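Same chain as my last thread, 315 residues:
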Amino acid sequence: MNKLAFVFPGQGAQAVGMGKDFYDKYETARKLFAEADEALGYSIREMCFEGPAEDLKLTANTQPAILTMSVIAYALLKEQGVEPDITGGHSLGEYAALVAAGVLSFQDAVVLVHKRGQYMQEAVPVGEGGMAAIIGLDDATIQKACDEAAARTKGQVLPVNYNCPGQTVIAGSTAAVEAAAAALKEAGAKRALVLPVSAPFHSPLMQPAAEKLAAELDKVTLHDANIPVVSNYTGKLETSAADIKTNLVAQADHPVQWIQCVRTMQDFGADTFVEAGPGKTLCGFNRRIDKAIKSLNVGDEASLQKTLDYFKEVR
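reply #2:
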């Protein structure tokens, strides 16, 4: 086995009931849920286990819920001697990656992503911004349609998540996103699906959120990374606390360069990736980026045991 990468999912992977089996079985999970509840001043544990789904879907709740689940998955692997050589996360997931790399404390990260969610929601009134997933078209075609839709509607729309070859997410003002999605469907997209999200994440419309996030990051201590972390904003390896802080602010209102992130981890020598947290979204992206990547996931007790069994065999 070459190098091992841990990657952490972003928003959309949440589900009511997540983490319950970890909580019932492991003291580490109970401890981390308790730390999250204390840092937030409300019970994210109850929201994860019992919902309601409508509350869990609220950005300010989703972000700390997924972060907590992701850090628990990481901690359970670490207890069994499975640790990464390099790490990264998709959007929100970058914060879990920074906890794993020793840049941020878990408590600081939980509070930061809760506020990040609030600031993102406040940046654009509900209904005035949106996102759409475009499947099956190249970047140049998507960019051209976005430029034309923005000009036509006098709004903003641009690619914001380069997830994997053939899947790009666009975001911006509602009318411009809808116009671009319709044009891309006509241009031959397999799907041009307007997403059920309440804000245009990673677009320039998020600049007010980025500015508020910068002020919050000034209040916490960031350490240089113990292992390299791949930045969503640059797509490059980062270890300097100062650079990581700058990139986290930029990440809020700039595109997520996920394809580049994965390729950077491969260039570092990572050939096995563990997605730590709910869902298997990043495993799916890996298959589209490079079928040679060995992808595992840890989102519940069954997948934890399956992944641990794999490492017992290869080590």
